[in-house]
Structure formats: structure tokens, C-alpha cells
Amino acid sequence: MGTHSMKFFKTTVLALSIMGLAACSSTGDEEAMASSAATNSSADTSAAQRAEAERLAREREAQARMEAAALATTVFYFDFDVSEFMASDRDVLAIHGRNLAANSSRRIRLEGHADERGTREYNLALGERRANSIRDYLVVNGASLSQIETVSYGEERPADTGQTEAAYRLNRRVEIR
Amino acid sequence: MIKTLRNLACIALLFAEGLMAAELNIEITQGVDNPIPIAVVPFSWEGANALSEDVAAIVAADLQQVGEFRALPRGNMLSMPDEAAEVFFRDWRILAQDYVLVGKITHSPGSQLVQVQYEFFDVAREQKLVGEVLTGSMSQLRDIGHEISNVVYEQVTGIRGAFSTEILYVSAQFISPELTYYRIEKSDYDGRRSQVLVESQEPLMSPTWSPDGTQVAYLSFETNLPRIYIQEIATGQRRQITDFPGINSSPVWSPDGTKLAMVLSKDGSPDVYVMDLMTNQLTRLTDHPRAETEPSWTADSRSVVFTSDRTGQPQIYQVGITGGFPERLTFDCFYCAKGRFLPDGKNLVHVRRDTREDNSYSIAIFNIETQRLITLTDTSLDESPSVAPNGSMIMFATKVNGKGVLDAVSIDGRVKFRLPSAQGDVREPSWSPFFN
Q1: pLDDT band at A67; cut points 50, 70, 90
Q2: What CATH number does the domain containing A109 carry?
Q3: Is A151 in contact with B225 (Cβ distance < 8 A)?
Q4: Which of A64, A159, B136, B214 has its CA 20 to 30 A from that of B127?
Q5: Contact A119 B294 (CB under 8 A)
Q6: What is the pLDDT of residue A81?
Q7: Backbone phi and psi for residue B63, each to the nearest 5 degrees, phi listed first
Q8: How do beta strands B215-220 and B227-232 pair?
Q9: Do A66 and A142 fall into the same domain?
Q10: Each residue's pLDDT tens digit, B8-33
Q11: Where is average pLDDT lowest: A19-28, A96-105, B229-238, B307-316?
Q12: Is A124 on the interface with B (CB under 8 A)?
């Protein structure tokens, strides 16, 4: 079950990044088309305006959907003995950061975790470093340090209690709460 | 001896049976090739009701657990003397026994106290080595048994016995993904008579003894943040002693009892600090942007051994408590952590993963003078080594079939025993100091 949700999570992130790219590249073209449409007849103009409004609405919808999906993504996984978050999580985390910037009263807690290999107290340090890696990126994206509490649980709260690589992968994580 | 028994009386009074404690059952997993044969004859008792404890069986179990002795099965005994006058050495020579222990338990009519008289003999020399009468209550028979084991062990090996010591450990009982009971428990060194000192639904970590054995320090997440607490064992009275931002972890008393080393990440990354327990004043021992953690004291209370990943991977270092540049102690391992010296101050017990490829964490001893390395264990998720106060054995935590268990190994690696928990995972053992 753990492995399954992991796969699902990965596809979500991939889909989000593609949508993100599409949203960015379309903006310029639409503006160019809208200005050329303005030089045509009034009937054409109103049709074009309608189309343009619809397009913008769709775009806003897509943007809102993406942001909702990103904000619903609250678990981020880490490689063995690595404390930097994965590059593929960057756009989702950026959305979290911008959301915090836009909602200054929002407070979050970043809970860092490690897998069970190695010593418990060193793993506490590793979990904190992972949480800090995400905290710093949220701050770069506009969040305020005062909005974020970080805590490390080390290896004390595994998501999966197994001794397999798959279990360890699920346990090396930071959760936004 | 009177003093000892006074201590025993205190212990017995203050600890009722712990209802929720995880019962540990000892298993000897490896012994020496030629254990010393010893006959521990059942102690006689003339009372009306059977005794709650078989004192001779406690002594035989103690001696066998540390692996150096083999107790003669009772069915093989030709006679069952209970005092010197009845001991015929020929009977024991025939059975190839090196030593014989006999004893009798009596009580004065109307008294709550029992007298345990024991005598210990060297068979080859046909000589009584030691004999004593110990007095205590019925509920202290187990303590008296351990006392006798200490005397016998020291007579034969020359090393002080640690059979009257105790251990602290953490147990975790998983109920559901949302509910785990974390407990800090205390038991005899052999896992018997376990009692819960503190229970929480948030993680508990790093239990450690004060050098006088009266207090325990530990880490609790009960406020949803890791904070250090000190608890009086006798009264259960506890106080939170840190509330710094970030990690507050790894408390460990200096051997002289005046200070508590700890790890705080309040200044950005985990570093080792020392708190003076009289003044609460903090001294920072390390100052590095990487992680410094897992402090342990040298016997003279003047320096601290710690783990740091300043070179990328965890290695063990030592620094004086007046500051200065840390000295690196380990080099040829992928992961060397949780270092602590044996009482000799030269042999460094630690958790070791040799190479990135081998993916196995073992307990090892590295002699910093001779550079000799002994790997003691062959399980793969070993951690949290704690040394017995007589320096003879190391208890540590490992996983067996997915379950957390406590293992003990002699410092030469020849003897091993295991304390598996009947319920839940057990981990982070901390061996007590001597109590007297």
C-alpha cells in the first residue's frame, strides 16, 4: 500500500510540473492574439473577447486546480543519507511558499523523519536537516520564518515499520502539517 | 553488607509490580567453549509455605547468563548439602565440578525477615572460600540471590559482579497507525521485575542514569517538541529542564554528577553543550554548521566524545570541556557513531558500518592506542551500546525478525545473551551504575 501511494504521488508531481510549464508558455501567445483580435470587426471582437474570457477562465481554473493539488501534497521524500529535498518537488514547494506569503496568518509545522538505519540521535539531526531544507525553500518563495515550526522525529515515527528498501524510502520524509 | 541490605529494602518498598511493563525473557545465545563447572545446590528452607523465589536457581541463572559458568543440573547431584559439615568434596570431584555453593534459608518464628546463609567452596583445594549470612524480607530474596552471585563471580574471576544492577530502556507498543504507547522502563539487568517509569503517546528517547542511580534523564516529545526531562526514580517527580528552539536531545550526566551534556540545535545546527546542574549555565562545546551529537563523558568528567558528520559521514571525535579543537578518533569506517569509552579509557565502544556497500551496523570496540578493532556482533541493525559498570559486557539494541530486542555481548565477543520483549519493541538500553 505504501509503495502504491508513493507511485501515485510521483505521477501527481509530474503532472503538476507539466501543467505548470503549459501555463507559463501560453500566457505570452494569448496576449499577442488578443491584441491582434482588437483590430478586427466588432462582431469578431466580441467573439474573440468571449473566447479570450473563456480561455482566461480555463486558465485560472487550471491554475487553481494545480495549486489545490500542490497544497494537498504534504509529504516529501528524500534519498538515503541526503538532507536536500528532491528537485522534482521544487514547484510544489514553491506553491506552498507563495501560499504562505499570501496568507500571513497561516502557520505550518514541518516534521522531519529518517529511516531506522544508523543511530537514533544522529537520525534526529538528519530529520531536522531535512525539515530545514524545505523550510529554507519556503522562505525563498516568500514565506516568513515566523510562520514555520520545524521538528525532527528522527526514526521514532516510521510511516512503514518494515525493514525493506521500500519501507525505508517512505520513512525518509518531511511532512507539512 | 548492612548498608547493601538497607538499599535493597528501599528498592523493594518503592517498586510495586509494574502492570504494563514489557516482560523481558532472557535467552543465552552464545557461551564460552569451556565454561567453569559449578554446582549450585538448592538452598534448604524449613518454613511452612513454599518460598516465592528459588535463590539457588537465581544464582545459577546469573552465572550462566554471563557465559563463563555452567551450572550442574540438580538431577545430577549425588547429595544436596546445605552447610559446610555436609559437603563431601569427593561427591563433587566425581562430577567434575570446580566449585560448590550451598545455603540455607531460615526465619525466626513471628518475624517478617529471613536469614540466608551461604557457603562457597573450591573443590580442588577442598577449601571454603567465603560464607555469609544475609538478612532481608521475603520480597528481597531475588536481590539476595543477585548479591550471592556477585560474591561468587568476584571470587572466581576477580572482577566485581554486576548482577545487582538494573537497566533502563524504551519500549514501543504499536496499537494502530495513530496510536503507539512509548514507555521508559526499568528492570533488573536480566530483564526481570520491569516497571514503567513514564508512558506517553509521543516518542520517548535516550533514557540515562544519574551516576548515583537515583535519577533518570530522557527526551520526551510530550509537548510535540523534543525536550529533556529529569525524573526522580523513587518518587516519580519530574521536571522539564530544557526548552530551547529546535532539537534538545542526548542528555548524559558527567561521572561526577555535576553536569549534563546535551545536544541543542538552537543556534542553527545540532551542537554539544554542557549544562551545569547547579547554576543551569550552558557551555557550548562544539560550534560547527554540520551535526554534532551523541555526547558521552570520559571517566574523568573532563572531556566529551561525540559524533560529527563534518567530513560528510558520521565519525567520532573528542573535545575537552574547556573547549579547544576536537580530536578525531575514528577514520577507517563509512559510519562510526555513538562512541563511549570502556572504564579503561582506551577502548572505544561504538556503532560501526564499515563501508557504504556493506549496509550493516554493528557494535565494535576500537582501541585508540593500539588501533586494534574488534567487531562484536553479527546482527545488522545494532545501535545504542551501553557498558555494564564492571566493564565486562555491553548491552545494545537490535532488530530480530522485525522486532526490537535488547542483546548483550561480552567485551571479548565470546558471550551473548538476548532479552526479547514479550510485547512490542524494546530499545535504547542504559546500564545502571553500581548502586553501592
Answers
A1: very high
A2: 3.30.1330.60
A3: yes
A4: B136
A5: yes
A6: 83
A7: -65, -35
A8: antiparallel
A9: no
A10: 433 333 333 334 566 677 777 777 77
A11: A19-28
A12: yes
Fold category of B31-157 in CATH: Rossmann fold (3.40.50)
Flag whether residue B382 sits within 8 Å of chain A, measured between CB atoms.
no
3 state SS of A45: helix
Residues A53-69, buried b or exposed e (16+ Cβ, 10 A)?
eeeeeeeeeeeeebbeb
Are A176 and A108 within 8 A, CB to CB? yes
**Do A124 and A59 share a domain, yes or no?**
no
> Considering the domain B166-431, what is its CATH architecture?
6 Propeller (2.120)
What is residue A39's predicted lDDT score, i.e. its pLDDT? 55
Q: Based on the domain organization, do A61 and A78 belong to the same domain? A: no
A39 and A114 share a domain?
no
Closest residue in chain A to residue B294, using alpha carbons only: A121
Owning domain of residue A54: 2-70
> For cell 538448592, what's the residue?
B42
**Domain boundary residue among A70, A87, A102?**
A70
B23 to chain A, closest Cα gap in Å: 22
How does pLDDT run across B93-123, given as a tens digit for each residue? 999 999 999 999 998 778 889 999 999 999 9
